[in-house]
Target: Putative secreted protein
Amino acid sequence: MKLRRHTVVVLTAVLVGVLVAMWVVDTAIAARSERLLSQRVAEHSHLGFAPEAYFGGLPFVSNFITGVVPSMYVSVTDVKVKPFGLLRTHTTITDVEVSADRLLAGDVAGAKAALITRGVNFDAVSLGRPMGITDLDISNPYDISPAGSAASEVKLTGTPPGFTGPVTVVAELRLKGKMFLLSPITVTDRSKLDDTQNDKLSDDDIFRAFRWELDTTTLPLSKQASYVSAAGGTVYFESQQRNVVVSMDDLAPVSDD
Model:
């Protein structure tokens, strides 16, 4: 009985050791492919840094057998895009058909994919720049948690040109064709304006100062935006394409540097 228990313990330990070793090897192979993909994107897009890259599939080597990567993404933080300044962009690709040797090399250009989703995040600085509001703050009007949930309305606080102090409005985020419309609907705080300006300005005057339009085809997306929301102190735009062939241009915008 003791011998049998000892054998079971030994076999269990061996099995655990083998599984851990396989996991380590699998993780190392995935990391290498992700690093090579990151380098390709950085070189193609003239980035001065390596973006974050990820290949899905558990275990990663199962992708070699199926020939399909269930999901992958590339995320680029602080890439300079005129006239907005520094933006965060990301590309998520679903069901990528790629051979084992090309996957090992981090090379997915020319691969077929079921879906490409590209996103762009505007933080307060990049959104405030074209609006001329240098102290802009973005928040969720209904969820005050640090991250906040996605919303189709946004609370904006800032000092538009010519204003004597910051004001706060709630605005709708809407897409109309290729155009993005930032449309204020409520003034929630104007108490920091001086008395003279506070008496002079109507709510409509404040709305005009925060109203903004953007042609979303000028964003580093594959086409015009199909979705917009606000969350975590940013405004997020997204576009999607189905049944496509992946190109390097899909993976990251070209920096203006």
Notes: The radius of gyration is 24 Å. The longest helix spans residues 2-44. The first strand starts at residue 52 and ends at 55. Residues 124-232 form one domain.
